[in-house]
Specification:
The complex is a heterodimer of chains A (88) and B (113). Chain A is mostly helical and 88 residues long. Chain A has one domain (2-83). Helix content of chain A is 85%, strand content 0%. Chain A is flat and about 50 Å long. Chain B has one domain. Chain B is mainly α and 113 residues long. Chain B has helices at 2-26, 30-56, 59-89, 102-110. Classes of the chains: A mainly alpha (88), B mainly alpha (113).
Chain lengths: 88, 113
């Protein structure tokens, strides 16, 4: 059960990451890319959480916290950048 | 028992994350994409974090995982609001099938507030 769910979660998260990167490359405007980048950050955090729990490497959780923090700050920074009039 | 609960939570959480990604790819404009990504990814990562906390089963990891979940629950709506407001102010077009734009309606009724 746990081996199957670990593999299922890892494969599903990898496919989701791939789809989010497709939108990141395609995205016609900058806000589309910011939304995709935000999702990539969340998916990477999820991937690290699953990997840390299944391999027992507890130090990786600290990296997940840092990535979540940086994704939030960079999204807000891009938001103010777009709002000042750089929509492309 | 705990392993079964944690496995089910991981399957549910990763399926929600996949749905968020599919929504970001398939939705027609920035605002609907932002909406799909925000809701589904928050719930998905919450399920993944609770499942991992059940499986690691020690206090230090549980505190870290729950703080990741709580932090995401607080910051995702904020970042979604910031990026949606910026996109609207930058004048990005709404989807052609949009039936209600409350901000424009209020603007036409009351002027710039």
């Amino acid at each position: 059960m746990i081996a199957f769910s670990t593999q299922f979660a890892l494969i599903t998260l990898a496919v989701a990451l791939l789809i989010a990167v497709v939108r990141l490359v395609k995205g016609p405007t900058l806000p589309d890319r910011v939304v995709a980048m935000d999702l990539v950050g969340v998916l990477v955090v999820g991937l690290i959480v699953v990997l840390a729990a299944s391999t027992g490497v507890r130090a990786a959780l600290d990296a997940a916290i840092v990535i979540a923090l940086i994704a939030f700050v960079s999204t807000v920074a891009y938001g103010t950048y777009v709002e000042r009039g750089h929509p492309e | 028992m705990m392993e079964v609960v944690s496995g089910v939570l991981w399957v549910v959480g990763s399926v929600f994350a996949l749905l968020a990604a599919v929504g970001v790819l398939r939705m027609p404009d920035v605002f609907t994409r932002m909406q799909a990504s925000t809701k589904a990814s928050t719930l998905g990562l919450g399920c993944l974090a609770v499942g991992a906390a059940l499986q690691l089963a020690d206090t230090a990891s549980a505190i870290r995982l729950l703080s990741i979940g709580a932090f995401l629950l607080l910051t995702t709506p904020v970042s979604a609001h910031v990026i949606a407001r910026a996109a609207y102010r930058a004048g990005l077009p709404l989807w052609s099938g949009t039936v209600l734009d409350e901000r424009r309606r209020d603007f036409e009724r009351h002027g710039e507030a």
